[in-house]
Amino acid sequence: MTSRLVAGLLAVASAAGIVVGTSVEYGLPAMLPFILVALMLPGVGWLLAYRRPEVRYGWVLLAAGLSLGVGMLGTGLSSVAPAGFFPYMQSVGLALFYGLTWIFVPLLFPDGRLPSRRWRAVPWIAGIAIAAHGIGMARAGLDPSNPATVADPVAALVGGTGQFVTWIIAGFVFCGLVLRWRRSERSERAQYACMVAGVAATVAGAVLTMLFLFGLSTPWLVGLAGLALIGSLPAAIGVAIVRHRLLDIRFGIRGSRLHLVFDVRPTVGEMLSDLGTALENTPEPVEQLRRLAAAVRAGLELRWAAVTLADGTRVVAGQAEEPAVLTMPVRGGLGHIECGPRDAGPLTNQDRRLLEALAVPAGLAIQSAGLVTRLVNAQEAERRRIERNIHDGVQQQLVALIAGIELARATGAGADMLAHLREQARQTLADLRELAAGIHPSSLSQGGLVEAVEERCSRLPVRTTVTSAPALRSRRFPDEIEGAMYFTVSEAVTNALKHAGAATIEVRLSQADGRLTAAVADDGKGFDASLARRRGLATLSDRLDALGGGLSVGSEPGKGTWVNAWVPVDE
């Protein structure tokens, strides 16, 4: 909002300077055509800066329009008060205007950036030359467009040298513009052609003006030259906008009535903001991917767009009846975005930059979808494991116990059989408690994380040490955090026993810098961490990721294994 307000103020100031200065110096209505043509420059600059504030090209045009307004205002006021500050306004303003329109406007076309790193020195040299031209002419007492007398020869030399260097750089920039036009892609060639024609018309206007200074031109040609000198570039940019969708700005007619409609594709910032809100309000992962694909399709005006996960899951917006013309991978190898053909014309470099910007939230959405999927699968696998353990273990023991009780009642069993049934019931109860501890141990609910980890490690058949800060023993955390850390430690020590052949295991629990950390290290045989799969730890890693934490595993053959898990917690 602030940038748009500034753009409007600059455009109004430019227009006011042009209208007031021209009216005072030359009068109305004779100069009305000149004023209307001159107002095109701040008008086009405002249009681009208002709708594309992040693109610097509109601000370059506004700077040129403001320079023209200051120069024309200085020209008009100098005729009223020749002495003082107004001649400086005239000389410096017009010098800036000519320098910006001859050098910077074609150099930074179309998006306000230099064509390449090799052009970095050109703006600095041009800026020095333009400053020397404007200040030198003002100090010398010369009107840049009508030299008459020299009050300061040294200043006149500086101003003339600056003007000459400005011409040389302008010619160099024009040649570079023609070269870029010849090498541009088909979708951008018409835009460059408009700019080349605009610069050529500006040069023609400058040549006709110079001929008039030497008495080789007629007044009506001078008027035509002035219009070409002032209005060629904004007219060329306007044609590029209306006919060739420069910076994706377009004009059209909607409905049955002939209304001029200004329409524009949303900016990168607008798309990211809207997409972020949509993803935040959409908890379902598949729906998030669908929203992402729809945003890509709408933003780039594609016939279809698709988001594909690494596991092959694919969500398409539109009808994918034609092959993809562009595929953008998402960071981390999580998937990629596919783009079908555009509704009109091929994809441009700006479209690719927009897609690169969308790849960031795309990666987050794909990562979220994959994480939720893995968590759901892990929960289903855990449910089946518990169901299998109950069916194969406790349930069978209870069936056998009931059968034994019925047999004892039918046969009038003695003390030995009753003692056997009592021992069988105790074993079933122990197995049931062990099963319940695998779901959520009671020690974790009652005593906290440190106590639960100590109880778990006390039953291990190898020497295991658990160390933690004294303050951590009495500290409680949310259930999901304590559960995630407990089962991570439990899985790590189980792996050390089953796979590593460890003789000693060390567990460290700590809290620092807003993190609760659990580290498990063993002296087992180790393995190549780059080739192994985490298996059980992969599910726990997803669980920690969902809490904003993480899990890392390191190991070397013969040097043991170490597991580090952490989650963010309040201090």
Automatic annotation (TrEMBL):
Entry's transmembrane regions: 31-50, 57-76, 88-109, 121-142, 154-180, 192-214, 220-242
Recorded GO MF terms: ATP binding; phosphorelay sensor kinase activity; protein dimerization activity
Coiled-coil ranges per UniProt: none
Domain Signal transduction histidine kinase subgroup 3 dimerisation and phosphoacceptor: 382-443
Entry keywords, A to Z: ATP-binding, Kinase, Membrane, Nucleotide-binding, Phosphoprotein, Transferase, Transmembrane, Transmembrane helix, Two-component regulatory system
Residues annotated as domain Histidine kinase/HSP90-like ATPase: 486-570
Catalysed conversion reaction: ATP + protein L-histidine = ADP + protein N-phospho-L-histidine
EC number, UniProt record: 2.7.13.3
Enzyme class, UniProt record, top EC level: transferase
Any Gene Ontology CC annotation: membrane
Keyword Membrane (UniProt): yes
Protein name from the UniProt record: histidine kinase
Organism for this UniProt entry: Nonomuraea diastatica
